[in-house]
Structure formats: structure tokens, C-alpha cells
Amino acid sequence: MSDSKYYQRTIVKEQLDSTFLGMQRNLRVYLPPGYNELHSYPAIYCQDGEEFFNFGRIATHATRLILDEGLQPAIIVGVDVNMPERTNEYSPDGSRFGAYCQFFTKELLPFIEERYPVRPQPDDRILAGDSLGGTVSLHLVLDYPELFKKVLSLSGAFLPSTITRLQQEPDLSFLDIYMLIGTDETEVKTERGTFDFLQLNRETKEILERKNVRPVYLEREGKHIWGFWQKELPEALSYFLLS
């Protein structure tokens, strides 16, 4: 990926004043090669937006895949996180989780869809997240199935509250989820303790299958770090967007 053409892309920085969060949230919006306001595009909404762009190199990956491998052009929206409140906003039992979901559905979506030609159908919205970002993305689908159906989960932090929620769902056949987990993620340290993410993802997969989901589930050698996720991101993007 040394070819300079992969770095010639447009990333627009936006700021959204959120009533629900009580603060301003920074956004970055990737416009694909050949972007035309008269066309419409699927949208990828990334939790931990700054990390997806800087450490995941999602814009570079997308540009290469679009130019060289026939990936369907998409608009990518990186939603920056307020790190001190990340757990409170992304965890389903966090004190700001409800406010974050309201922000996402009632402020972020209209903001983007008023300014960019993204398709508003659930099949054309992809929620992407790493760790707890994968968790909040999954819960957004569970809580707003009329808005979202697709989740790209990089080592999702599917802790007991998420497991319990999934077990309560009668049918999740509408869910389209791509799950990546590293085989070295057996002792992941978090603010709430150390967890075996590998086992939790395996359990989540089994529950989803019982709920009529056919998840794309990949176990690859890797740790709970962006160095692992970055290498695997092109395959995940291709799953959702390869023409």
C-alpha cells in the first residue's frame, strides 16, 4: 500500500453539537474516489472514529479496495469518542449509554443524511466498532432494528449484560454481523476486570446461531490491539461492500 494514489482522498472534518451528550462531538467523513453528490452511497459509521482512521487506516484500505478490487464506494463516518466517558457511553450498563444511543440515532444520522448523499435504508448502514465499540454497535441494532441491520465487530466486548440481552431475543434473523476475534485475547484487561474475550465471542456466536443469525465468524492469531484489527479490516470491508 505504498502507492501514493491510495492517500489521495477526501476526508471532511465536522463538528456536531449534541443536546443528548451535552457536548460537541468531532466527526470525520471519508468521501470515496469519484465522489459525486448526485450519486448515493452506503455508509459505514465507526465508533472510536479517530482510531479507525488513524490506527485502522480505514480510509486508505477503502481507497485501495475501491480502486483496485471493485469495492462498492461508500461514505465512512468516524465518530470520535470522549475517552473519559467511553465506557459509560459504549457499555449497555453505562451511565451515558442511553444518551449516546439517542445522540447516534436522533442527531448523528440526520446530521449526516442532510449533508451527504448516503442511503437511508437499514441495509445500507453498517455499524463498525472495536471492543466496546462493537458492543454499542450490536446494541444499536438490537434497540433500533428499523434503522440498522449490519455490524462489523472487531473483538467485540460481549460481556454478561450483552449475553443476557441476546438470550432474551426471540429471533434475530435480520442481523448481519461480521465477528473477528484474536486467539490471543484470552486475558484482556479492561476497566471492569480481566476477561476472556475469545470465549465470550464464541459464546456470543453460539447464541446468535440459536437466534437464527448466520454470523461471519473469524478467529485469527492476534491480540486486542489495532495492529491486529488493521490487518484484518480489508477483509471485513470486502464482506459488506464487494460488488
From TrEMBL:
It comes from the Bacteria. Keywords: Hydrolase. InterPro entries: AB_hydrolase_fold (IPR029058), Esterase-like (IPR000801), Mycobacterial_A85_antigen (IPR050583). Pfam families: Esterase. The keyword Cell cycle does not apply. GO terms for molecular function: hydrolase activity. This is Alpha/beta hydrolase.
